[in-house]
Amino acid sequence: MKLVPCAVIAAALIVGPVIFAAPRPAPGPARQVPPSSVVRPAPEFAWSSVAGKVRRLRDLRGQPVVLVFATGPAAKDFARQVKQITRQYRLLAARNAVFFVAFTKETGVITRSDVPFIVLPDPESIADEYQVGDFGIAIIGPDGNLDYATDRVIPGQRILDVINNSFQVQAQQRRG
């Protein structure tokens, strides 16, 4: 009698996972990664629109964000980074990228560039959230994932490559 229950249990253990396994989704078009699967959510920040409406980073879901930190508009690292972004601006704009700058020590006008930077208020707290010193750049994917962060000037092509190969894109490719 004890052999029958053991055989039934053994069969259930072998066949059970096959019966109860979740079906695999059919191959098809890539779908958007749900926010709950974002690996490194970018710290939130806010700014006021031209109309005075408070906007937040989460309002930009679906668009990549390039966030540059600098001590001021005359800082050498900032000028070099803006030059790199300007070189790839048309391609970045075609990807609907939005550009922000957080000046941590002095404010001013951004010259020698047609890139429409949004200057963030309260830059010190944003720099603290992103753990940035005098200079840094962060690239936030359309899903809100912090895809790239560094304290060095990077080529505009690198920014474009990160946007084109964001966490969301990589996750979709793994599923395909």
Note down, in words, how this protein is organized.
The protein is α/β, with parallel strands linked by helices and 176 residues long. The chain has a domain at 65-175: 3-Layer(aba) Sandwich (Glutaredoxin). Helices cover 35% and strands 18% of the residues. The longest helix has 18 residues, at 3-20.
Keyword list:
176 residues, alpha/beta, Glutaredoxin, 5-stranded mixed β-sheet, two-stranded antiparallel ribbon, globular, disordered N terminus
Mean pLDDT: 83
What would CATH call the class of one domain? Alpha Beta
Shape: globular
Biggest sheet statistics:
5 strands, mixed
What strand line-up does the widest sheet have?
Answer: 5-4-3-6-7
Q: Based on the structure given, which CATH architecture of one domain is correct?
A: 3-Layer(aba) Sandwich
Rg, rounded, reads 23 Å
| Number of DSSP strand runs | 7
Weakly predicted, low-confidence segments: 1-34
What is the CATH topology of one domain?
Glutaredoxin
- Class inferred from helices and paired strands: alpha/beta
CATH superfamily of one domain: Glutaredoxin
- What helical percentage do the residues reach? 25-40%
**Strand-and-helix sequence, N→C?**
HEEEHHEEHEEHH
Strand content: 15-25%
Supply the number of helical segments: 6
Terminus-to-terminus distance: 49 Å
